[in-house]
């Protein structure tokens, strides 16, 4: 091993492999959330799942910020990530029972992962820098939030819920308070990390659908409806991928790079920490509806799953829309129309087979993205034509001036 030449740790701008490894635990956690909602679809479960998702989002987003501030290829950083990854396994395993007997088993790993991420940021920064002082000011109230979350794990029923909500509220308040502070923001790393967690969530759509269909087969093979549902679900995941990665993700990264350094912390908080939470949550909710459609493609989709499917689309495109508006002041008009159309479809589709609903959603999304693409590219073309026309007009004036001068 002495012959292996390893480069020195230095400032890097891409996600380290240990960050990708850390994300894998969230595949497990998201699948548990999908299972929780799939087998107990009621308002109480949805509320519990929403709170659990927010508690999962806290340590993940803290690691995104910490690894953004501290180069990820040092062994100390990798060790903290591996500790957090080990802690995330029992956290994910207890997602479905967090409000029952496994409250502490869920809450303690959440706090351990968050504190490891916070320690990574604080210990990795120069203690004479303004960013270090910003981290301390931000970290103090978040420690209180983690105490509330751990204590809540040992409480029961409404007391547990109250303590966990209190912890989330304190965390959100601390991020609002820290918005005006100085932070290290590497636009490429932020874009990559949040793109990867979206891919993890989209992967859950595919995994959930595959498991739901493959496990009950028992060698009987796929029905035509099941095959169509699988294809339609794959198309659905691909369309969601396209709706974010084709234009939105690189646009966010570019705008972050253009944002003045003093404003980048607030920009990253709003566009990434805040707006991406509903995007990922929306994919999870949509995965529940997609799995039910795939499980029973020839049956009408029950009202609870139709509501979750519609809510998932509202959250996904709402999160993207909020980020786009925050970054560019632009409104994604076609996407708003698409979400409205899907909600109406879910409302009136009580007698429509699940696979038909799934194909209809795919068609709506596909048409939306095509229309949006033609409008945007057409606008660019008209702007270019107008610019060329103005340039041509100015050129003819100049030519006329030259001719007049010669005549004189």
Q: Mind telling me which CATH architecture of the largest domain this is?
A: Up-down Bundle
Low-confidence stretches: 392-408
CATH class membership of the largest domain: Mainly Alpha
Number of domains: 2
Spatial shape: globular
What is the helix/strand order?
HHHHHHHHHHHHHH
Mean model confidence by pLDDT: 86
Name the helicity range.
over 70%
Assign the CATH topology of the largest domain.
Answer: I/LWEQ domain
How far is the N terminus from the C terminus? Answer: 86 Å
Tally of helical segments: 14
Could you walk me through the main structural features you see in this protein, from its secondary elements to its overall organization?
The chain has 408 residues and is mainly alpha-helical. It has 2 domains: 14-184, no CATH class; 187-212 and 223-383, I/LWEQ domain (Up-down Bundle). Helix content is 80%, strand content 0%. It has 14 helices and no strands. It has helices spanning 17-39, 43-69, 75-93, 103-124, 130-153, 157-177, 187-214, 224-245, 248-258, 261-274, 276-295, 303-328, 333-348, 354-407. Residues 392-408 have low confidence and may be disordered.
């Amino acid at each position: 091993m002495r012959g292996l030449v390893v480069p020195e740790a230095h400032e890097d701008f891409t996600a380290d492999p240990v960050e990708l490894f850390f994300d894998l635990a969230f595949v497990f956690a998201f699948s548990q959330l999908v299972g929780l909602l799939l087998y107990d679809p009621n308002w109480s479960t949805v509320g519990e799942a929403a709170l659990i998702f927010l508690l999962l989002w806290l340590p993940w987003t803290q690691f995104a910020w910490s690894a953004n501030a501290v180069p990820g290829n040092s062994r100390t950083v990798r060790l903290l990530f591996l500790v957090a990854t080990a802690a995330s396994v029992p956290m994910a395993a207890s997602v479905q029972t967090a409000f029952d007997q496994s409250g502490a088993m869920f809450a303690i790993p959440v706090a351990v992962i968050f504190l490891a991420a916070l320690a990574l940021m604080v210990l990795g920064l120069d203690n004479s820098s303004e960013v270090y002082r910003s981290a301390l000011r931000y970290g103090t109230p978040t420690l209180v939030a983690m105490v509330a979350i751990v204590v809540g794990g040992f409480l029961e029923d409404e007391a547990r819920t109250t303590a966990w909500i209190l912890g989330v509220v304190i965390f959100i308040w601390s991020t609002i308070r820290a918005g005006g502070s100085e932070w290290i923001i590497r636009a490429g790393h932020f874009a990559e990390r949040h793109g990867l967690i979206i891919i993890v969530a989209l992967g859950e759509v595919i995994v959930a659908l595959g498991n739901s269909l493959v496990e009950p087969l028992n060698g009987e093979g796929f029905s035509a409806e099941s095959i169509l549902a699988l294809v339609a679900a794959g198309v659905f995941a691909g369309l969601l991928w396209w709706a974010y990665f084709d234009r939105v993700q690189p646009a966010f990264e570019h705008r972050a790079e253009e944002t003045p350094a003093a404003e980048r912390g607030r920009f990253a908080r709003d566009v990434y920490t805040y707006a991406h939470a509903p995007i990922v949550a929306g994919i999870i909710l949509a995965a529940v509806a997609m799995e039910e459609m795939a499980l029973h493609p020839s049956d009408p989709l029950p009202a609870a799953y139709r509501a979750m499917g519609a809510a998932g689309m509202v959250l996904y495109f709402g999160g993207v829309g909020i980020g786009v508006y925050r970054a560019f002041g632009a409104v994604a008009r076609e996407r708003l129309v698409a979400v409205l159309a899907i909600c109406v479809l879910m409302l009136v589709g009580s007698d429509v087979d699940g696979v038909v609903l799934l194909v209809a959603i795919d068609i709506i999304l596909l048409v939306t993205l095509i229309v949006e693409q033609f409008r945007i590219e057409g606008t660019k073309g008209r702007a270019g034509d107008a610019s060329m026309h103005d340039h041509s007009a100015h050129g003819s004036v100049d030519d006329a001036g030259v001719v007049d001068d010669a005549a004189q």
